[in-house]
Design a protein that fits this description.
7-stranded antiparallel β-sheet, alpha+beta, 29% strand, globular
């Protein structure tokens, strides 16, 4: 069974705005350059989206390597990267979470558009 985030971690994640993703490079061992990104918690899972959609370099590495690490709420976590795009109901829940958490940001509208929505990633501990 896949590992799950703890309730304490999810509560911390939902408040934090300091996420950096570092999927592995092609060698499968070296962590990529940390990329700052928005994160939201929906249905007890952690999600991110690539601002530049599927063309984002970190997103391409994440989908190819499926693993790496994140830094969030002041801590680092070994992480699995899972494609989470294409579920309309889930996309709507994630959109709502983005609207709630980042409502005052001028960068919010682009995050709700087709490109970033198509590059939605679920992050699970590994």
């Amino acid at each position: 069974m896949a590992k799950q985030w703890t309730t304490e971690q999810l509560n911390s994640f939902s408040q934090a705005d300091d996420m950096h993703v570092s999927p592995f490079y092609d060698d499968g061992k070296t962590y990529g350059t940390p990329t700052w990104i928005w994160s939201v918690v929906v249905d007890n899972n952690l999600y991110v989206r690539a601002y530049n959609g599927q063309n984002s370099r970190w997103y391409q590495s994440a989908m190819k390597q499926k693993a790496g690490k994140i830094r969030l709420a002041g801590k680092e976590f070994e992480t699995e990267y899972i494609d989470a795009a294409g579920n309309v109901e889930l996309d709507q829940k994630i959109n709502a979470a983005y609207k709630e958490k980042y409502q005052n940001s001028p960068y919010l509208p682009p995050m709700l558009e087709k490109g970033p929505v198509s590059a939605t990633v679920k992050l699970s501990p590994r």
